[in-house]
Amino acid sequence: MKTHLAQIAALIAFVADTGAGLSQTAQPPAAAPAPAGGAAAAPYVMTMGDMMNAMIQPRHAKLGLAGRAENWALANYVLAEIRQVFAGIARAQPKFAGMPVGELIDVAVNPPLKAVEAAIKQQDAQKFAVAYDQLTQGCNACHMELDHAYVVIKTPDASAFPNQDFNAKR
């Protein structure tokens, strides 16, 4: 473990040194003109759709694919990531469409996530499939509650991640 961490630290140091050398020789791109009147440009703030599409939906798919492959270590890892991201979203946008995001997550997502967690701990593919379906239904129920019924999430039938082996169990 220490050797692995040392290798990672060495790689980071190498990249940092290489990057520092590059930054000394490379010319920065021309700065964009300042907005009229000298006002500073407003920073981009992710919308709820951005956060769901970029952070939740890929993890939902990965969780389903890992569970289908009975890769319990990966499923457990992705489950933890989903929980972290949902917590971050609730902090970043406490209300959406006038609804309390944290409460929506507590009602629609957290109970199925607990069932998914239990199935992972038991390494039970059948229970996982049922719990994952409940999670997916919870996502869709939340979308309906927020007048976004046209956003329908489903169990993935193919991987959108051709560069990841979900069957690899280490």
Gist?
This protein is mainly alpha-helical and 170 residues long.
Detailed description of the structure:
The protein is an all-alpha fold and 170 residues long. The protein has a domain at 48-145. Helix 2 packs antiparallel against helix 3 (72-92), helix 3 (72-92) runs antiparallel to helix 5 (110-122) and helix 5 (110-122) runs antiparallel to helix 6 (125-145). It contains six helices and two strands, in the order H-H-H-E-E-H-H-H. 18% of the residues are buried. The longest helix has 24 residues, at 2-25. Strands 1-2 form a two-stranded antiparallel sheet.
**Low-confidence runs:** 1-28
Supply the number of helical segments: 6
Shape assignment: globular
* Strand order in space, largest sheet: 1-2
Write the layout of secondary structure elements.
Layout: H1 2-25, H2 48-68, H3 72-92, E1 95-96, E2 99-100, H4 101-108, H5 110-122, H6 125-145
Antiparallel strand pairs: 1-2
Feature tags:
disordered N terminus; 6 helices; mainly alpha; 170 residues; 2% strand
